[in-house]
Structures are given as C-alpha cells and as structure tokens.
Amino acid sequence: MWKIEDAIDLYGIERWGNGYFSFNKNGDLSVRPTKKEAHAIDLKVVVDSLVNKKIKFPILFRFPQILEGQIKELNASFSNSISEYKYNNVYQGAFPMKVNQRRK
C-alpha cells in the first residue's frame, strides 16, 4: 500500500522543499508560499479547477512569495556570516530577473 511517507522518500521533498512544498493528508502536492500552514494550497485542487474550466496546458505556476522569502533568507545568511566573521565590508546582492514577470 502506497503511503505519503513513500512519496516523501521517493521525491526527496524534505531535501528541496525548504518548507514551501510538502504532501498533504490526501497525498497531494501542497505549496505554502509563505511557509505558513494557513496559506497552504493543494495543487491538485487548483489543477482540477483549471481542467474543469478547460484551461489549456502547460500551465506555469508562479509564487512570488517564495522568491521573496528566499531572497530574505539569502540576505540574512550573508548578514549573519558578516557579523560572525567580523567582515569589514558589506554584501550587496544582485538578482537578475526576467523582464515582465507579471505581464498580463
């Protein structure tokens, strides 16, 4: 009998999900764009809804909250390391972005 733990092991979601992705109690992929359980989205429910609306595939899902969270985490990591190692300079991140990310 296939269990959620089997999916977790097979797909290694604990290694790459970083608190944003997991499997819910139904065994579906769940996304928490802010890492808060209250903001969890069942991707199967979303996809089923799009299929019912006859939306054509492929579909690209974007979660700007994940990008924002990762940038904050990266900046905090550099800031902590600068403090810990008493580095006498600053870190200025440069994050190239594709133009028109939210083009309508």
Strand order of the largest sheet: 1-2-3
Give the overall shape. flat
The major beta sheet can be summarized as:
3 strands, antiparallel
Per DSSP, what share of the residues sits in E-state strands of 2 or more residues? 5-15%
Helix content bin: 40-55%
**H-E order:** HHEEEHH
In whole angstroms, the N-to-C terminal distance is: 44 Å
The number of E-state strands comes to: 3
| Whole-number mean pLDDT | 89
Describe the structure in your own words.
The structure is a single chain. The chain is mainly alpha-helical and 104 residues long. Helix content is 41%, strand content 8%. It contains 4 helices and 3 strands, in the order H-H-E-E-E-H-H. Strands 1-2-3 form a 3-stranded antiparallel β-sheet. Strand 1 (21-23) and strand 2 form a beta hairpin. The longest helix is centred in the last third of the chain and has 21 residues, at 64-84. It is flat. The mean pLDDT is 89.
Task: Briefly summarize what is shown.
This protein is mostly helical. It is 41% helix and 8% strand.
Label this structure with key terms.
mainly alpha; 41% helix; flat; 4 helices; 104 residues
Secondary structure topology:
Layout: H1 4-11, H2 13-16, E1 21-23, E2 29-31, E3 41-42, H3 43-52, H4 64-84
Antiparallel strand pairs: 1-2, 2-3
